[in-house]
TrEMBL record:
Its cofactor is Mn(2+); Mg(2+). It catalyses: ATP + H2O = ADP + phosphate + H(+). One of its GO terms (cellular component) is mitochondrial degradosome. PROSITE patterns: HELICASE_CTER. Belongs to the helicase family. It is found in: Mitochondrion. Residues 703-713 have a biased composition (Basic and acidic residues). SUPFAM superfamilies: P-loop containing nucleoside triphosphate hydrolases. Residues 266-434 form the Helicase C-terminal domain. This is ATP-dependent RNA helicase SUPV3L1, mitochondrial. Its main location: mitochondrion. Its EC number is 3.6.4.13. It comes from Certhia familiaris (Eurasian treecreeper). GO terms for molecular function: ATP binding; hydrolase activity; RNA helicase activity.
Amino acid sequence: GEVLKNLNKFYKRKEIQRLGAENGLDARLFHQAFISFRKYIMESSSVSADLHIILNDICCGFVLLGHVDDLFPFFLRHAKQIFPMLDCMDDLRKISDLRLPPNWYPDARAIQRKIIFHAGPTNSGKTYHAIQRFLAAKSGIYCGPLKLLAHEIFQKSNDANVPCDLVTGEERVFANEDARQAPHVACTIEMCSTNTPYEVAVIDEIQMIRDPARGWAWTRALLGLCAEEIHVCGEPAAIDLVTELMYTTGEEVEVRNYKRLTPLTVLDNALESLDNLRPGDCIVCFSKNDIYSVSRQIEARGLECAVIYGSLPPGTKLEQAKKFNDPDDPCKILVATDAIGMGLNLCIRRIIFNSIVKPTVNEKGEKEIDSITTSQALQIAGRAGRFGSSFKQGEVTTMHRDDLAQLKEILSDAVPSVKAAGLHPTPEQIEMFAYHLPDATLSNLIDIFVSLSQVDGMYFVCNIDDFKFLADMIQHIPLNLRSRYVFCTAPLNRKEPFVCTTLLKFARQFSRNEPLTFDWLCRHTKWPLAAPKNIKELVHLEAVHDVFDLYLWLSYRFPDMFPDAVLVRDIQKKLDDIIQIGVCNITKLIRASQSAAAPGTAEVVSEDFPLSSTQKDARVVSDHHGAASTEALSIAVEAAGLRRAKNSRPSRLGSRQEDLKSYGRGSLANRLLREGLLTQEMLRQLESEWQDQHRNGRYGFGSKRDDQHSSKETRKKRK
């Protein structure tokens, strides 16, 4: 008792906390180190003799011989054992010092660049003017946020007899038949070269420099491109930050302001009913399930509609846009997510917001519903009445009367200024960290890097959750650090279990130095695939398309290990055609899904409620054409980073699978939905609570304690 009392006294001493901070222990590390130190003293049977003597003097009250502060050297020694970076903290702080990003690009600093900011709303001609300068230059680079945009500039440039290459994460297309590099290139922004000199560079959608995940790519392009002229296009909200950043490089910014080319009117009446739809209308939804529901209701009225959402392949999006834009096609209505905000030229007369709240997932992985931002609302609404289309002015309204006043308020608000630019640790920085901390995992290296990093007020470190998710997933696979880093930067959606488990298989085979051949990939994806018969099959085909994208992405980084890029690109085009057939028949797929589940409900995968890792990976095993093989299940569990589960009994995992398949979709849930005793929202809430309980491993499904816990939670919420 005396030992514990004195240890707690030691922990609370301000002087000790200050000494800890001086030795690299911030509040969080200090607390963790103390818990470990206390456990070591209280539970260890072999405390060192010198520490034993000090503790004895303190506990016996020998004031002249012992004081709690005398524990600090022993505490620090213990802390350095569990946090090895404390021994090289000065070196690590220097490596993770991110306060002068302009200095990372000596080639760009060696020239005096001219910065021109083309500022304006959607449909103002700002990008058009920048592209005209790009086409007139002897050499140029276009950097855009989407493959679709890079592809559009690539085509536009070559059509204007300006040879231009295309570079995306998954694709290289040369304008010259002999594969010589053309003087112009259109690329996705992450792929831009900061070493190649150009006369003109265009950086599109500069406001994305604030993006929590991808902002670093815009920062890198803005600070690092070696071009005599940098043409920056985007929202006026980014002008101040770009000007400040360029002040630190000694470069002036010329601002050219643009106004919208066609009028945009916010209507005074909501649509209220799909009976009021007119040709050229676009209904914007913020979830796939809403897309399915609205398109089904439109078809029931005898109208054809095109469908566009984020997870569709680019080719399918373009075909759906072409169908909607074609004046001779009977399809006159578009149902889309906010994926239409960028990258597609659409002839829309009226934008109708089906809802003005958008599901998001916060840093803790929790589902939240937030109103759309002014920037998002303007980007989407601005798609109506595109200059040069058949509609000379645009209109915007809401589906529901209650939302209209709030939409008007959102659209009238000023867009907040962009305050900071994103940064991301480079592979070189992580390699230097690994040199000092050879036993740390990549996920831990990144955590330590971010916790020690120092940034200027104009910058922030981008969210590295996706990187860490993949690092944890493949941690047990033996890879060198460079290869591991590349795998962890792979652009995939971690909400897609089939894609995640495929990456895991890729990494495992790569580690064995076994090339991933076309035949192997066909076996894994069960190619060739048939046209989808229901929504679940369509969702799976979209995931397979993403797997082909992942293969192509890795093939450009490890060409010897992923040797069949040409063959994979061919079958990806065929898969795109198959998905297009599915999307053209989407209402039939919805009907098939509804009849398979129950009247009034569609058994579809909701993108708004990401499952926990274990649940996602268990679900993909049961969903993948019903194949619940032991091998696939073990991979799914591994992918969740839960290798300890490998020793669990298969029967328990199997019953968990059945719970996942049946939960919320069984006859009771459907009956309650039909009878109006349960809403979809209530069902989602129940699903969310059930997932939370299983994520925390608290209770068995359907147990008495589970029910008690749920009722307590409900009472708390009511209070």
